[in-house]
Amino acid sequence: xxxxxxxxxxxxxxxxxxxxxxxxxxxxxxxxxxxxxxxxxxxxxxxxxxxxxxxxxxxxxxxxxxxxxxxxxxxxxxxxxxxxxxxxxxxxxxxxxxxxxxxxxxxxxxxxxxxxxxxxxxxxxxxxxxxxxxxxxxxxxxxxxxxxxxxxxxxxxxxxxxxxxxxxxxxxxxxxxxxxxxxxxxxxxxxxxxxxxxxxxxxxxxxxxxxxxxxxxxxxxxxxxxxxxxxxxxxxxxxxxxxxxxxxxxxxxxxxxxxxxxxxxxxxxxxxxxxxxxxxxxxxxxxxxxxxxxxxxxxxxxxxxxxxxxxxxxxxxxxxxxxxxxxxxxxxxxxxx
Length: 337
Known about the structure:
The protein is α+β, with helices and mostly antiparallel strands. The protein has 4 domains: 5-81; 98-137; 155-244, SH3 type barrels; 258-335, no CATH class. The protein contains 10 helices and 11 strands. It has helices at 5-18, 27-42, 51-62, 98-112, 123-137, 158-167, 239-244, 266-272, 301-309, 320-335; strands at residues 74-76, 79-81, 171-175, 184-196, 199-206, 211-217, 221-226, 258-265, 282-287, 290-297, 314-318. The strands form 3 sheets. A 5-stranded antiparallel sheet has the order 6-5-4-3-7. Strand 1 and strand 2 (79-81) form a beta hairpin. Helix 1 (5-18) crosses helix 2 (27-42). The chain is elongated and about 80 Å long.
């Protein structure tokens, strides 16, 4: 079967229907759901499909060449209900099938043509990651390792969150943070996804608090689902500028930009010459033993953690309140010993 962009879109629509426990999808309702979504996406009735195509799509998803999905045997009178046997299953979480493998291989070939061009800086790493993941999927032993967590909690929600940001879809999120004993549920308007330190964070508008930069850690999400509530578009925050003012993802209520000066010893200083911790970084050697490094950021928790990670190799010179804070945390750590 020749698979183009639109069949893949149909498979994803069907996938969302199959894992929906709140609606009984017969073939007729599945056909309506698929065609309604295709009309929303393309505004073109010629993109709609007939029942025969829908049956072929389901058969492909059930096949070994597809994802080998398992549908429950549920009846509503004489009509069959189409729903996953395991409602936690999704084709987004399944191993790559032959179609996806072919598409990835083709994509890598196209991307490889742009290697070395200045406007595609960093594409080499993307290509290497894709090739490595494909080798894992085809049982070939990888020969390169990336800094990533194989068991990243909450990553199963990434596709839903990505689509919600892209399609401006309001979400209902059930969340369990570190401070509460029980999960709680709220409405959220997602605007931006951000990765930091092998964790993903979702930023957006939280109507209850009227905060435009509400922060959702993906690994703390218990459940998430799209809901039919008018989406509140972000017209307040430039996210590129927002994150350029800090390290990490935490911004204090009264945070202001400050000049941060750090001194590194000789050995670590040679390392820091080639490792930028922020885009505003400037450094120079004060003598053969001390590297002066300056950045302009809003001091936050992540900056403190970064400084502490260098242990005895670094000293905070300014601002004074950050110097005092690091000293206080080092002394508290010393009490553990």
